[in-house]
Amino acid sequence: MATVISRMLFVFFIIISIPCISAVNNPKGFSTKLIHRNSPLSPYRNLQTDEEDNLFDDRALKSSLRRHAYLSAKQQNDQPNDFYGFEFPDGTGYIAVLSIGTPPMNVYPMLDTASDLFWIQCAPCVVCYEQRDPIYNRSASDSFIDLPCENSLCSELGPRGTGCNQEDKCTYNLLYVDGSRSSGFLGAEIINFTSFAVNAETFAPVVFGCGTENLNNVKGYKLDGVMGLGASNLSFFSQLVNDTERKFSYCFGNISNSTDQGELKIGENAFIFGDETPLEVSLGLYYVNLTGIGIGVGQPMLPINWASSFQKQPDGTGGVIIDSGSTLTHLEQEAYDTFKKAVLDELRINHNIYPVILGTYRECFAGRVASDLVGFPKVILYFEGLDNKLELDIWSTFQQLKSDSNGDQFYCLSFTASPNELNVIGNLAQQFHNIGYDLENNIISFHRMGCELI
Question: For a tag on the chain, would you pick the N or C end, based on fewer CB atoms within 10 A?
Answer without folding.
Answer: N
